[in-house]
């Protein structure tokens, strides 16, 4: 269910005291505008549906519905309720100017309440809220304070204050824990640094907020500095939870109504990039047109209807039409969540979890029979320590998945099964069991499992059997100390208080944060270079400072016990010269199996010869070698098949295909010499040279001729 929108009024004091500041210090007005900008930025990039209005007080003019001759003067409704956008951001930065007058902030609150009352009539809002930014430097009258408090409570409008200083700044030895936020982020404002008017304003704020909320009222009073720290991160995009209703089936006779939600899924940047005219910045001024042409000298245009998509299979292209693609799709009767069987949870290895999301599966809402059956299933899985292996298909067009459904029971909501069952009727027990099932928070957590093709099998030598890899006792102890020192869970001395020093679930994606920062900068400064990455973004994924300090000693010990030596390894370069090199120059390698065995000897190669009937695309050189050695082989026909594959390699271009083509030419050359078919190879070489010149493949020809020349100079017996 979507979250209802919120109506927010940003009420800013622009009076003359807000714009005054000490030399080399930022004025309170500029600080307040920074906080407002950060807030609106978060709303814009989070694509929030909340509506924002802006009210200014202390302005030179007056524009509000309550204004009369001597009432509510110097208060201006600057912007009515509407969705926040870049225009509002620009207006806050450049449009809001300091005023030369003063106005009562309580009067400003009344104007904000009036705006919210009138502009939210007939609309649904989850909450109505006022955020007031001021330095409390203006005169304040408490005549209507009780009326304001009563109306705020009656209408349910919430209120927050943002000040340059904490509200407990003028306390001397009193309880400074009234405002937790202000206490943590205390600013150095001594009592003598505040004017009498500001001290009076603080008293009014305290009275107002304490009356609205006796216990936590002052927690809604923030400093500008604290707010900037809290708003430094862009708000995450709010997603409406999408329910996926289905039937959980076990066999053909048992079906339970369920509903699933995505619990964890990878968030991706919304694809809103578009091509616009560089001068007008309008999308309509740019038209995109795709033209298909033949790869010939004239680049003959081909109509789209005369094209067909193809699937590259090796070096061949297999034509595949849209109709073929549609028929190929795996189609199911409908969406499904079908239990195929059960397995011990210990058999589902953690490294086999895959997929881009995790589902939480619940019993269907308002279905007591489904709740009873589903709860029984979850508890049975939990007690037996097994999981359900499930066939999952999102809809009939989706490819099916195999996954594991793990039982999950929220402990804090469990009720003892044996509680109060003695001496009760069966009907009473049934009702009690239904009540327990509703209270228990049970669900299944679905995680996708891999198919055979998704697994990667690797074989490595055992570390246990290699004496060089067995660590010493000192090395094991050093690694243990390092792991202990890098523990991300802090445990207090009492052994009962724990604190997580690194919470990934609370860390926003740095990519999103940087993107929003750059977009916002470009929106206001299109001709300026992008700003550097903000320091807090770089620090987010750094090791916590406490852990960094704690692990320095163990790291030094590790460095001493595990010395490192640089090993320089020369890279082997495979060139055409290496391919064409005659193995007889260096003598026969005794480790390399001979291809030509005696007539009566057994070889795997000879077993394969009977299965090769044509030159294929997977290993054309070896296929050619096998075919030309068969009895009654037509050398010309087989060589033409090889030439066709060489042409395809050259069409694809690229060093990988060039080397494959050169390997085929090498084998062609060797077999032509052995079988006295040199003229056939020479004719091919002449034709190849013409093709190379026509298709601008000089780089390929140069690589090949380097190898041929090197072999000729070493052998000196070739007839080409």
Label this structure with key terms:
720 residues, alpha/beta, seven-stranded mixed β-barrel, 22 helices, 17% strand, disordered C terminus
Helix/strand-derived category reads: alpha/beta
Query: Can you tell me the overall shape?
Result: elongated
Describe the biggest sheet? 7 strands, mixed, barrel
Low-confidence runs:
169-192, 412-423, 583-609, 714-720
Physical arrangement of strands within the biggest beta sheet: 7-8-14-17-16-15-13
State the distance separating the first and last CA atoms.
80 Å
Mean pLDDT: 80
Please give a structural write-up.
The protein is α/β, with parallel strands linked by helices. It is 37% helix and 17% strand. The protein contains 22 helices and 19 strands. The strands form five sheets. A seven-stranded mixed beta barrel has the order 7-8-14-17-16-15-13. The protein has a six-stranded mixed sheet with strand order 3-2-1-4-5-6. Helix 9 crosses helix 10 and helix 18 (620-628) packs antiparallel against helix 19 (635-652). The longest helix has 20 residues, at 655-674. The chain is elongated, with a radius of gyration of 39 Å.
Topology:
Elements: E1 6-13, H1 28-45, E2 51-57, E3 75-82, H2 86-95, H3 105-119, E4 127-133, H4 145-155, E5 157-163, H5 180-184, H6 196-212, E6 221-223, H7 224-230, E7 244-250, E8 254-265, E9 292-293, E10 301-302, E11 310-313, E12 316-319, H8 322-328, E13 336-344, E14 354-363, H9 368-384, E15 386-393, E16 401-409, H10 426-439, E17 442-449, H11 473-485, E18 489-491, E19 498-500, H12 510-524, H13 535-540, H14 545-550, H15 552-561, H16 576-580, H17 604-609, H18 620-628, H19 635-652, H20 655-674, H21 678-694, H22 698-715
Parallel strand pairs: 1-2, 1-4, 4-5, 5-6, 7-13
Antiparallel strand pairs: 2-3, 7-8, 8-14, 9-10, 11-12, 13-15, 14-17, 15-16, 16-17, 18-19
Helix pairs in contact: 1-2, 1-7, 3-4, 9-10, 11-15, 18-19, 18-20, 19-20, 20-21
